Amino acid sequence: MALMVIVMGVIDLLESGDTAALKALGARFARRRLNRNKTQQILANEAGVSRKTVSNLENGAPVTTVNLVRVLRALGEYRGLDNIWVSGIQCGFDDNSACDM
Questions:
Q1: The pTM of the whole model exceeds 0.85
Q2: What does the alpha-carbon distance between residue 10 and residue 62 come to, in Å, rounded to a whole number?
Q3: Is the pLDDT at 48 greater than 90, yes or no?
């Protein structure tokens, strides 16, 4: 079983397996939804996805990228995706030709 290291609420994806990381992320989605006093069905309606998709996401089951983005947007968390790409990182091996910034 993979060891999941959580430091100050950050999941160390290098130390946890995919399943553990997805479950931890799913728990965060569930907390965000519950903090907004929404049922899975209400969130699903707002996101334009099925209730099963929301359930899958919260339980760490794989979902499509488009459905992930839709749920993030419905939760008001879409801007958090900007934090994935850090500007100033060299993307190519020899130059920045592979960068999409």
A1: no
A2: 20
A3: yes
Q: What is the C-alpha separation between 53 and 65, in angstroms, rounded?
A: 11
What is d(CA 16, CA 30) in angstroms, rounded to the nearest whole number?
Answer: 20
DSSP 86: P
Contacts of 75 (CB under 8 A, 6+ apart): 29, 32, 33, 36, 43
Segment 80-100 shows an average pLDDT of 56
Letter for the amino acid at 2? A
Rounded CA-CA distance 5/81 in Å is: 22
Q: In the numeric block, which tokens belong to residue 21?
A: 């990381």
Instruction: Return the structure tokens found at 38.
Output: 């929404």
